[in-house]
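Chapter review: from sequence to fold.
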Amino acid sequence: MSENDNNARFFSINIDDAPTGKLKLDRGWTQRLINEDTGAKKVDVHINHINDDSGPGELHYHAHTENVYIVLEGVLEVVVEGTQYLLHPGTVGFIPPGVHHTAGSLGGHGVTKVIEIYAPAGKDFHVVKAPE
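The token string follows.
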């Protein structure tokens, strides 16, 4: 039975019961925990399961959103403004708004499992096009 409050004062979900979806570019899948669909207006929390061979993903930035990564399994390769960072299990990374970055599985360590937090919630993903 759900512990969710009908007046939107409280929401809980078992991670195993969370709605799922595909990551962009078929790089893995995500479990959507807390977001606008669950009543959150200022935060989005999800768990990404990034394929071992995913590559770095699209170069992008968030104009208004702060981005937090909490690595649970595997090795997350994050490239921020051209500098590579390797985040191992137990590591937390933070990227402020406006900073160009990519993130993906380093490879060779199995699926990379990452809790990702966006605040404020909402669509704020801007792909950076390579110079021609």
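Two observations follow directly from the output. The two ends are 55 Å apart (CA to CA). The chain is about 0% helix and 40% strand.
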